[in-house]
UniProtKB/TrEMBL annotation:
Catalytic activity: a sn-glycero-3-phosphodiester + H2O = an alcohol + sn-glycerol 3-phosphate + H(+)
Family per record: Belongs to the glycerophosphoryl diester phosphodiesterase family.
Name of the protein this chain belongs to: glycerophosphodiester phosphodiesterase
One annotated GO molecular function: glycerophosphodiester phosphodiesterase activity
Record organism: Rubroshorea leprosula
Keywords: Glycerol metabolism, Hydrolase
Domain GP-PDE per the UniProt entry, residue ranges: 49-337
Entry-linked PANTHER family: GLYCEROPHOSPHODIESTER PHOSPHODIESTERASE GDPD3, GLYCEROPHOSPHORYL DIESTER PHOSPHODIESTERASE
Keyword Disulfide bond recorded: no
EC numbers, comma separated: 3.1.4.46
Length: 386
């Protein structure tokens, strides 16, 4: 279903923010703030290779035989703080707005519960905050919440059972309860099947921005979205925090052509003043030349996808110039990244593939054996097959 184009030039800036709002990004996680000079190409770059915890400590795959994918409830305060206990830079999570205008953290468009043997689906955007928080574990242990189920992409339904459960939460709670050492990568979540009117998108984004400006208190923030118009609008509505466009790079085809390739993603970012791209990792390996074009456009580049849970895949991206990865296996990948980018026993140094303003960042390369390198070079093409 086609998405209605939004005329961002007609949208007003968010003109009322609390007095304690952070007016610039002053953190080691950021090497440059948003550039408000519209006549100058806006650059943005992470000062180092970053690891971002997907939905905190990783998404829940209830159908998986891997217990790690069902360890901690995704998109929960518990999951966020567990991820923050490792040397990560950001946590990524999904934000939607309830019927009564409260930004909540939940990935799926619909929330499922059991009722007298039947599964009941309700759209998150069409229920109130109180109803949303009534699902799953409750803050008061003596209270019993509604059961939670989840539907997979192939239509199977599983009871949402994890080893370490936790209540659903709001965006405000995340700011108040999550360790301040980690930044927030806030994905602005919208339903692909809905054609949003301009005023609907604007209202939703302003509700989210008010919470961010009131509670961020200097915490590094990145906005991202698969919805092109939402990404353009949030960039238009505020200039404090960078905005990245999410794309699967052509793995799926949409009626909105802006979503169908990395080149279209570059064009969207340059036209709308966005600061970066978050690509599905397979798109990068299928089209490695796009990395150079993204760099030439002074855009940041990070990736997402299950292949990012493979250390060798992460290292290949590091060499290619990708600046960060969104991962589920936070402990394993943070340990691997430390090993991959830290000094070797021999202390030999090797220049990495990304440069800025003539300054070359020097990293050290792990000492793979010939057999390991051969395996690695054969592994990537096999993994990126559709």
């Amino acid at each position: 279903m086609a998405l209605k184009a939004v005329h961002v030039s007609d949208v007003p800036h968010l003109d009322q923010v609390p007095g304690n709002a952070a007016l610039s990004v002053r953190s080691p996680q950021f090497s440059k703030c948003v550039n408000e000079d519209e006549n100058e190409k806006c650059g943005y770059k992470f000062p180092k290779f970053v690891v971002i915890g997907h939905r905190g400590s990783g998404m829940n795959m209830l159908q998986s035989s891997d217990g790690r994918m069902k360890s901690i409830k995704e998109n929960s305060i518990r999951s966020f703080n567990n991820a923050a206990s490792f040397p990560i830079d950001f946590i990524e999570f999904d934000v939607q707005v309830t019927k009564d205008d409260c930004p909540v953290i939940f990935h799926d468009n619909f929330i499922l519960s059991g009722d007298k043997g039947a599964i009941v689906e309700k759209r998150v955007a069409e229920i109130t905050l109180d109803e949303f928080l009534s699902f799953g574990p409750q803050m008061e242990p003596e209270n019993m919440g509604k059961s939670l189920f989840r539907k997979t992409k192939d239509g199977r339904i599983f009871e949402w059972k994890v080893e370490k459960d936790d209540p659903l939460c709001t965006l405000q709670e995340a700011f108040q309860k999550v360790n301040h050492s980690v930044g927030f990568n806030i994905e602005l979540k919208f339903d692909d099947q809905i054609v949003y009117k301009e005023e609907e998108l604007t209202h939703i984004l302003q509700v989210i921005l008010r919470v961010v400006f009131e509670h961020a208190k200097g915490r590094p923030i990145i906005f991202s979205s698969f919805q092109p118009d939402a990404a353009l609008l949030v960039r238009k509505l505020q200039g404090t925090y960078p905005v990245f466009f999410l794309t699967n790079g052509g793995s799926e085809i949409y009626s909105d052509v802006r979503r169908n390739s990395l080149d279209e993603a570059i064009n969207l970012c340059l036209a709308g003043g966005l600061q970066g791209i978050v690509s599905e990792v397979r798109a990068i390996f299928r089209n490695p030349g796009a990395v150079a074009r993204i760099k030439e456009s002074k855009l940041a580049l990070t990736t997402y996808g299950q292949l990012n849970n493979v250390p060798e895949v992460v290292y290949m991206q590091h060499l290619m110039g990708v600046e960060g990865v969104i991962v589920d296996l936070v402990q394993e990948i943070t340990e691997a990244v430390s090993d991959l980018t830290g000094p070797t026993k021999e202390g030999k140094e090797e220049k990495n593939f990304f440069e800025e303003e003539g300054m070359v960042e020097v990293k050290t390369r792990p000492q793979f054996s010939k057999d390991e390198l051969s395996f690695l070079m054969k592994l990537i093409p096999e993994l990126i097959q559709p």
